[in-house]
Specification:
Chain lengths: 692, 204, 125
């Protein structure tokens, strides 16, 4: 086993940068809830992303149950038409922007640095800011329930339905501003994670030795990087239309509602892929473990992911076949959509081939992964039927579409995430989730899911429109709607079982032996370190020689290709014992404060201008304090014995992967603040100005 | 890179970046952000091009309003601010703090002149009856150029912050990259204007 | 470790300096580029002032002339002032991926609004 054992030196800390400039004392990052507010640790941030997303998932789930309860019988009276509009809009918005995307971000944040053998992400404070801005935006959107009602234009908020004339309440303003805030979060997060993958891999880990999940994270973040600004541009138009009477979507002044559709789906289709790719990555890492075989066609898996990323930009208008874009456009986008099924099919094939001939153990993570493969295939196939424009003309705006995207987003992405939860729970929290409950969880979810969304195919083909709050008896809708509603409650109970399992297993774990670093006999680097992951991740940083490096430290192959164990797991994993003199980036208040200012600006734009001023000042002030605060506080920090900083420039071989703490990037630590400044300030300044 | 001949006490203008790519995290991050900004401005420019002509009878259009000599002059001012910016970066790279400050001030002044020109242009258009809500053209035009103007303003604020840092002795040579990063942002704003000047103002 | 650590910016050696130095070879280049940019801007204004030389305002020749000068300016600023000439090529790639993607996507969008065909101008009534 080769490790790089260079001293973990810090090469900043010369006189001019080592003084803490903040007005307040630097947070120390000790134990307790306060440490979560100021943390810049990618693992804590990942956990917070996951926890926040699950909380939003429950909110979005309750909204889903309301929808299903309303549709239980013809002429339902639980919700009024107006309430129904709000509930389905908020359900879609919540599930897409506040659940699936942040769960992807949670896994990316927690796992990706571990999979590449890094100590943290490239910009730890920006990482914290991304999370807090996401949370602020999510809470801001949901606060609309108490301030005059939620948005009611559907999650894609088509113009001119979204203008003040047709939606006079403030719901759409909350939606618009809230998603601008989460957009800032996604964008800063994307920059951060891309830089991390490109720049901070452990020695020896070339791009083609990275685990598939890391690859899919890279593709996902590139999609975010380029897709989010398109939505932001569209949302600015909507913002100016709604709040400052601009004429962008005002048909009487020649505004083109179709422009919103185009811009939204130019964002929206890459968005679809960036929601599914993290789950694809998880499955690609979990399947080989429980098949005890390497992934079939690693290169194909990686490049089909990249291909999906590129082709995802050329298919957006298939959402708009019935909007009159002309026969040539329809033809081009129809063909492009059929072609994008190819790289997706490649992945399905690779996963199946991975399992063929393997020693499969049907643990709960594995069950969820197989669930993904089967359910996503169904969703993918119904997707191909949409690419045929004449068929789509019949299907569009019916429940057939609803069935399709739930099969890919719930049956695809969410099943993958559930597999990821079960698989990574011991790594993150140090105890295994109960297997029996896990399997029950899977089957309950599987049955409930198919019971809910399977009948929607039939309903759609029968002609039931989506987004209509009720239906009349006698169209043949009653039976299938009842089935779907029962399914929805089964699905909800499976989620309840999952939450129960979390607490049940935690209690039970006290009397069980610790899972150890590698409970599943896994393949990737993150299983080499103790569970739960220590604060410093790796000590020492491993040197990587091949794909699935950790596996080949444990196993070799005989001449006839049979696996033989060459080392005991305990001998190749790292131990938490002993002293670890690892210098980590210091916690900071400013990411949180900067994020808090954003929703205040949002409330200001909706209610009263002076709040914009306050929010803008909070964010701008925090960004300044942030820029002046060194990334590392030499007077307080983690670990021990880190206070003997060498003089700058004297550490040409400083540790390759030591967070952003070293001088080269430490010089940029202020740039990091300035960089965020261009985002955050850009928005606040603009908003403050336009109000006056 | 560390140069043994010069000795250990000397600061390196471009410190070695111990990253896989050899690029510092911050610089890579900035370029990624700029790549992303292309899509943002692209969306607004596209909106403008789609909405270029107001409907009949809804206020003046671009043909009646644009004052090309004036806009050419202000475009030229912004273009030259890119030169002063790059000279500022070059000054700090060789440790010339005095020139750094001069060039930063020059850049900020040229940027301010550009913004002042924009304010003047907006006022003139307003007097000719082009309010923000007048027509689809007016919304798109003010939206796009105003958005760019805000970017320039943010850039000026960042330049002034750098100047302040430098005056207080907190911008040593080995942190020249901070200036370079702000410079990248500034040049990008100029790039966008090069695009806007041709596509919005000159091509009918 | 050597294969993953790689030293970009070969001119770094020459800029290892203690204190101020006055001659800096690139500055001269920067000024030259600025002159070229000034000339290109003058050309743009020239095209706009004498459209008949290029086939009339709004003709393909006129638009082509303006687009060529625009892209030349764009490239010059990026290549020299933003140091893409000297920096790691990855940075150019990252930026141009965004730039080209934006052009492709938005030109396709405008084409769907029939902006480039007869009777265009946002006419999708």
């Amino acid at each position: 086993m080769t490790v790089v054992d260079t001293p973990l030196e810090l090469s900043s800390g010369n006189g001019s940068t080592s003084r803490p400039f903040g007005v307040f004392a630097r947070p120390t990052g000790g134990p307790g809830w306060r440490s979560w507010l100021t943390t810049v640790d990618h693992k804590k941030i990942g956990i917070m992303y996951g926890a926040a997303a699950l909380a939003f998932f429950i909110i979005g789930g309750v909204e889903a149950l309301l929808i299903r309860a309303q549709l239980w019988a013809p002429r339902g009276t639980l919700l009024s038409a107006d309430q129904y509009n709000q509930v389905f809009t908020m359900h879609g918005t919540t599930m897409v922007f506040l659940v699936v995307m942040p769960i992807g971000a949670a896994f990316a944040n927690y796992l990706m640095p571990l999979q590449i053998g890094a100590r943290d992400v490239a910009f730890p404070r920006i990482n914290a800011f991304s999370f807090w801005a996401f949370l602020a935006g999510g809470l801001f959107i949901n606060s609309s329930w108490f301030l005059g009602g939620g948005a009611d234009g559907g999650w894609f908020m088509y113009a001119p339905n979204s203008t003040v004339t047709f939606s006079p309440s403030n719901g759409i303003d909350f939606w618009n501003l809230g998603l601008l805030i989460t957009g800032i979060a996604s964008l800063t997060g994307a920059v951060n994670l891309i830089v991390t993958v490109l720049n901070m891999r452990a020695p020896g880990m070339t791009m083609m030795k990275m685990p598939v999940f890391t690859w899919m994270t890279l593709v996902t973040q590139f999609l975010l990087l380029f897709a989010i600004p398109v939505l932001t541009a569209a949302q600015f138009l909507l913002l100016f239309d709604r709040n400052f009477d601009a004429a962008f979507f005002d048909v009487s002044k020649g505004g083109q509602p179709l422009l919103w559709e185009h811009l939204f789906w130019i964002f929206g289709h890459p968005e679809v892929y960036l929601m599914i790719l993290p789950a694809f990555g998880l499955v690609s890492d979990i399947l080989p473990v429980f098949s005890r075989k390497p992934i079939f066609g690693y290169t194909f898996i990686v490049f089909s992911g990249v291909a999906i990323g590129f082709m995802g930009w050329g298919v957006w208008a298939h959402h708009m076949f019935v909007s009159g874009i002309g026969p040539v456009s329809v033809l081009v986008f129809s063909l492009a959509t059929m072609f994008i099924a190819v790289p997706t099919g490649v992945k399905i094939l690779n996963w199946t081939a991975t399992m063929v001939g393997g020693k499969i153990s049907l643990t709960s993570p594995m069950l969820f992964c197989i669930g993904l493969i089967t359910m996503f295939t169904i969703g993918g196939l119904s997707g191909v039927t949409h690419s045929v424009a004449p068929a789509d003309t019949q299907q569009t705006d019916t429940y057939y579409i609803v069935a399709h995207f739930h099969y890919v987003l719930f049956g695809g992405a969410f099943f993958g995430f559930m597999g990821g939860f079960y698989y990574y729970w011991p790594k993150v929290f140090g105890y295994l989730l109960n297997e029996k409950l896990g399997k029950a969880n899977f089957w309950l979810m599987f049955v409930g899911f198919n019971l809910t969304f399977g009948p929607m195919h039939v309903l759609g083909l029968q002609g039931m429109s989506r987004r209509i709050y009720t239906y009349d008896a006698g169209y043949g809708f009653e039976f299938w709607n009842k089935l779907a509603t029962i399914g929805a409650f089964v699905l909800a109970s499976s989620i309840a079982l999952f939450i129960f399992n979390i607490f049940y297993s935690k209690v039970k774990a006290k009397s069980l032996p610790k899972p150890g670093p590698d409970p599943w006999d896994s393949r990737t680097l993150e299983w080499m370190i103790p569970s739960p992951t220590p604060e410093y991740n790796f000590d020492p940083i491993p040197t990587v020689t091949r794909l699935d490096d950790f596996w080949y430290r444990k196993y070799g192959e005989t001449e006839d290709g049979r696996l033989v164990r060459i080392a005991a797991t305990e001998d190749v994993t790292q131990s938490a014992e002993g002293e670890h003199n690892v210098h980590l980036p210091s916690p900071s208040y400013w990411p949180l404060v900067a994020a808090v200012g954003l929703p205040i600006v949002g409330y200001g734009l909706i209610f009263t201008w002076w709040l914009c001023l306050i929010g803008g000042l909070i964010t701008a002030g925090a960004l300044y304090a942030w820029a002046l605060e060194p990334a590392d506080d030499p007077d307080a920090g983690h670990g021990a014995g880190h206070d003997d900083h060498p003089v700058a420039g004297a550490a040409p071989e400083a540790d390759l992967v030591d967070a952003d703490a070293d001088a080269g990037t430490g010089a940029g630590a202020n740039g990091e603040g300035a960089d965020a400044g261009t985002n955050g300030e850009g928005v606040t300044e603009r908003e403050v100005e336009t109000v006056g | 890179m560390f140069d043994p001949e010069v000795g250990a006490n000397v600061e390196v203008a471009h410190p070695t970046h111990d990253t896989n790519t050899g690029i510092s995290n911050t610089k890579l991050g900035m370029w990624l952000f700029l790549g992303s900004e292309c899509l943002l401005f692209g969306g607004l420019i596209t909106t403008y091009l789609v909405y270029k002509y107001p409907l009949e009878g809804q206020g003046p259009g671009p043909d009646q309003l644009f004052d090309i000599p004036f806009t050419s002059a202000s475009s030229f001012v912004l273009l030259m601010s890119s030169l002063t910016m790059v000279l500022a970066v070059s000054a700090i790279e060789r440790g010339d703090h005095h020139r750094l400050r001069s060039w930063l001030v020059a850049t900020a002044l040229l940027g301010s002149a550009f913004v002042a020109g924009q304010v003047y242009e907006f006022t003139a258009f307003l007097n000719e009856g082009l309010g923000f809500t007048t027509s689809r053209f007016s919304s798109a035009f003010y939206g796009l150029t105003g958005f760019h103007g805000v970017h320039v303003t943010v850039g000026i604020i960042m330049l002034m912050s750098l100047l302040l840092l430098s005056l207080r002795g907190r911008l040593p040579e080995h942190r020249s990259e901070t200036v370079e990063i702000v410079g990248l942002y500034w040049h990008f704003v100029d790039l966008v204007w090069i695009f806007i000047f041709a596509v919005v103002y000159l091509i009918p | 470790m050597a294969d993953t650590t790689h030293f970009g910016d070969t001119e770094v050696d020459t800029t290892v300096l203690d204190g101020a130095e006055h001659a800096y070879p690139r500055d001269r280049l920067y000024v030259k580029i600025a002159l070229v940019l000034a000339v290109l801007t003058a050309l743009e204004v020239g095209v706009h002032s004498f459209p008949d030389l290029f086939g009339g305002s709004g003709s393909p020749g006129y638009i082509a002339a303006l687009l060529i000068t625009m892209f030349a300016k764009f490239w010059a600023v990026g290549y020299f002032f933003m140091h893409l000439k000297w920096d790691n090529k990855l940075l150019s790639r990252v930026f141009y991926v965004g730039f080209i993607l934006a052009i492709l996507v938005y030109v396709a969008l405008m084409a769907m609004f029939r902006l480039f065909s007869q009777g265009g101008g946002g006419g999708m009534a």
